[in-house]
Amino acid sequence: MWGKRTAFVALAGAMAWSVSVAHADGYEITPELVEAAKAEGTVVFYTATDVAVAEKLGKTFEEEYPGVKVQVERAGSERVFQRIGQEISTGIHNADVIETSDAVHFLMFKKEGWLASGLPANVLKDWPKEEQDADGQYAAYRAHLSVIAYRSDMIKDEEAPKSLADLLDPKWKGKMVKAHPGYSGTIMTATYAISQLLGWEYFEKLSAQDIMQVQSSTEPPKKLAQGERALQADGNEYNVFRLIDDGVPVKIVYATEGTPLVVGNAAVLAKAPHPNAAKLFYAYLFSQEAQQLNSDFGGLRSFHPGVKEKAGRTPIKDIKLLLPDSAGQEKEMENIKAKYEEYFGT
Amino acid sequence: MTSTVQAPVFNRGIDFSKPVFILLAAVLAVLVILPLFWLMVYSFTDIDRNVTFDNFIKLVTDRAMRRSFGIAIGMAALVGILACVVATPMAWLVARTDLPYARFVRILVTASFVTPPFLGAIAWEILAAPNSGILNILYRWIFGLTDGEFLFDIYTFTGLVFAISCYTFPYVFTLVANALDRVPSDLEDASSILGAKWLTTLRRVTFPMVVPAMLAGALIAILQALTMFGSPAILALPAGFHVITTKIWSLFQYPPKLELAAAAAIPLLLLTIILLRGQKWILGRKGYTVLGGKSGAPRVTELGKFKWLAVAFVFGILCLTVIFPYLALIKTAFTETIDAPLTWESFTLKHFNFVFFEFSATRLAVFNTLLLGVLTATICTVIALVVSYLVSRKSVAGAGILGVLATAPVAIPGIVLGVGLFLSYANPTFMLYGTLWILLIAFLTIEMPAGYQQLSSAFQGVHPELEEASRILGATRLKALWQITAPMLRTSVVATWCFVFIGTIRELSATILLTTANTKLVSVIIYDLNESGDLGAISVLGLLLLVVSFIVVYIASKMPLGAGRLQPRG
Q: How far apart are the C-alpha atoms of B528 and B538, rounded to whole Å?
């Protein structure tokens, strides 16, 4: 599906890389960059972040840098991935900056040579080394968790599950909603982490619980908000934060076994139609302002040291995390999807 | 022009039949054969395009795949049966009895026909989701039950069959009602004169005459159900089962298995061809339908004391297909959340504000949808008109092939066609991906069979005498077609146009693979929003889509076409 252009694109990528070696300590936002970006006028952002959060980020960028418009194209991670694959393989270069919540995608993008090199200076300085690509092609723009959550008006706090194992209790039969690893990068990462920890028997037992199966990891919290189900077996933490901010009676459970951490990488595309605007927007994505906005308004976790988490949210250092392993996950993807379908039917 | 000495006197000077035939054959061949060609190539090759049968072996040995086929076939068959059981008596009541408000009933059936099935499915989620569904909330409230009790669960196999039937039964209804409008009353009169009771006449005379129409309608309903993507994606996936279209769609998830997807489409293709053959066979055996008869008005049966029972039946059905779902959409559009009570406090315009002012995609999507709808409907109707003319009048040797080409896409499910079109046009040669052209091509291909079927059956009802007269008087073929035949077919042409327009704006299965940021359509945004659970915004967009459809259909039905305008049948 990726076409024959790969070799050519890879070559372009390699050239871009050799250029970036010269700037190994990252780039800053300079007045020249801003001017060049304004001349291009637009930046196209393919993202898997919740649409309201992504649009808000675009708006604040436009206020900060008037003259550069942000075109936000939001879809689920796997849809974003499918779209960019279709486009690049047919020679269409529409996207400037890309972001998905499936770290495996970026391994593949890099392999195909679709990414430009060069990270903003603050990322190279402040980000943990494992959250930035060694060749400077992508870095962790955001992180979030896949959590258990429940409607506190439908389930009493003392009866609420405390662990993943608690979800297997027959009393939750017909009460749970869950997203799909074939559709959602977040759930793929989470499913891999949990299957490594608890084995597939866990999912086999979970599948007997008569679960409502939705696709995107943004959906389970919305089903809680609707009152369609009382408990989510997995789903985005940040959507639950936003529901809490809106006054919906929902509570998060950080499972005693651990909570899967999902890292969303972002990158500039090698053949971005607006290379300077892309660079500017990319640097903005990692700025304290944008990262703080992601945290406050979007409920996302940040690797920026200056970001303050809202009061009432459990700081990430107090949560037992299941860390992602994208290389291991990449090898297991087919198996995960097959197993999942075997147990859950889709 | 040259001389009138020689006979025959047909004007052959500027007869465009031949060039038109060649042009159409070329256009249709490209539209149909190119995607099918790529589909075949992919299904019989591996990732490096080496010939292999592995894809089919995988298809047969994969349990999940076999299961999705079984479920899809079962679902489609049940939809067909349900559509017949509901629509046939309804059509009879409307066309042949003194049922009150019959006209209004026809309008409401048209409304459920215009409703995109995926929108209907979403409306039924709002109504009958086990916990948050409005009907279930009412049920619990009325009987004082606790949470967790429910009356309906739309996320089930039966729920899916029901939700699809609601929006496919109009096919059966329309065809049967039209047949009943046309069937002359002579035979029925003869039957009653010979002493048969009305029920006997109904059973032995009227019913057999509409069986072909009923079967034809059921077949369309079955094909629609079999190839539908939106409703199963919305209702079957949460329930934890796949039908064949959602299964094919899932093969596009990373890493995409295009070859298997192409191979999975082939059985669907074969099944469709078998069904179409079956229809031909049945129709061939029972060709009762009398078209263009010169009998008087159809017989009207008086319902007498059953009148109100019939009204209850008909409106009960309409409540399920149109009235409840529309009310649910309206309620959701104007309240904060779907389970909010209907009070002044919960009234809000925030979803309208979001859709029209905050959501950046709306305006472009509405524009694209309308543009493509009008273009597709117009081009498709013109091509279908000319093709059915050439085929039915056999004016050019080999015209039959056009009919075959125009019908062939019916056998290709939208999602499969999406794949084929993507493979055909999204390459450096054509570079059509990311443009509206690829969508126009997709819609033309998808809608051609429906357009052609409608117009060719209309042509069969028009005797060529008048055309011949016109040609003897010096008109060319095209002139005769335009001046004589087209006006006589006015109703059918307008109906076809509307049919195609509606089909286009509600298309989702092929569209979902072919749209990009700049070529968004309303149906796709609705699907995207459903993914993120924004039911309020969906309701607003859905209502917008419906209002626009109704307006377009209304205008089209008022549009004069050609020189002569036939009086509607009395």
A: 9
H-helix segments, chain A:
6-20, 31-40, 51-64, 77-89, 103-112, 121-126, 185-198, 200-207, 219-226, 237-245, 275-285, 288-296, 326-344
Of A74, A215, A227, the CB nearest to B131: A227
Q: What is the number of structural domains in chain B?
A: 2
Q: Would the CB atoms of B237 and A214 count as touching at under 8 Å?
A: yes
Among residues 410-439 of chain B, which lie with CB inside 8 Å of chain A? 422, 426-428, 431, 433-434
DSSP B45: B
| 8 Å CB contact of B155 and A229 | no
* Contacts (Cβ under 8 Å, ≥6 apart) of B189: B299
CATH number of A145-261+317-344: 3.40.190.10
pLDDT, mean of residues B451-470:
78
A152 interfacial to chain B (CB closer than 8 Å): no
> Of B319, B348, B377, which residue sits at a domain end?
B348
pTM: 0.82
The 3-class SS string of B523-544 reads: HHHHHHHHHCCCHHHHHHHHHH
**Out of B155, B338, B535, closest to residue A212 by CB:** B155
Cβ-contact B142, B249 below 8 angstroms:
no
Q: What is the 3-state secondary structure (H, E, C) of B449-465?
A: HHHHHHHHHHHHCCCCH
Residues in chain A: 346
Domain span holding position B200: 53-348
Model confidence pLDDT, tens digit, residues B467-522: 778 888 888 777 777 777 777 787 788 888 888 998 898 888 888 878 877 788 99
Q: Compute how many other C-beta atoms are within 10 angstroms of the C-beta atom of residue B63.
A: 9
Which tokens sit at A87? 């486009």
Which residues fall within 8 angstroms of residue B214, CB to CB, at 6 or more apart? B84, B87, B88, B172, B175, B176
- Cis-peptide into B255, omega within 30 deg: yes
Quick one: B501 exposed, middle or buried, by C-beta within 10 A (0-12, 13-18, 19+)?
buried
HEC profile for B379-410?
Answer: HHHHHHHHHHHHHHHCCCCCCHHHHHHHHHHH
At B557-567, the pLDDT tens digits run: 776 544 333 33
Please give the torsion angle defined by the CA atoms of residues B60, B62, B65 and B70, in that order, rounded to the nearest 10 degrees: 60
Q: Is the minimum CB–CB distance between A227 and chain B shorter than 8 Å?
A: yes
The complex's ipTM?
0.77
Fold (topology level) of A6-143+262-311: D-Maltodextrin-Binding Protein; domain 2 (3.40.190)
